[in-house]
Amino acid sequence: MGNYVCQRPIHPGEILKEEVEYRNIKQTKLAEQMGISYKILNDILNCRRPLTTQTAMMFEAALGISTGLLMRVQLDYNIQTAKQDKTFLDRLANIRKVAAML
Q: For residues 32 and 58, what is the distance between their CA atoms, to the nearest angstrom?
């Protein structure tokens, strides 16, 4: 049995936003506590900005959610998003064609 893949890529911001809302934490307060701008925090929580290792570590410090878990979710999101990019998939197909002739 292969690995299960969601139909829709899940951004780690979705998980973080749910947790922040569940705990009733104000985004402005969390951003201040983490030492990042409100805009950066809001962009992450609304899936407009990827998590970096450093921001994942800050979320772990602030919320107790594992950096490893958050980064695996980000990696899966990146891979699934790339696999949905037709132009990129065409490029990969061409690379494989050339590589087969080497």
A: 11
Q: Which two tokens stand for residue 13?
A: 């911001």
3-state helix, strand, coil in the chain (%, to 5): 70, 0, 30
- pLDDT of 89 > 60? The answer is yes
Q: Which residues contact 69 (CB under 8 A, 6 or more apart)?
A: none
> Which residue shows structure tokens 């490893």?
68
Predicted local confidence at residue 32, as pLDDT:
98
d(CA 26, CA 72): 26
Structure tokens at 98: 């050339």
CA distance 4 to 22: 27
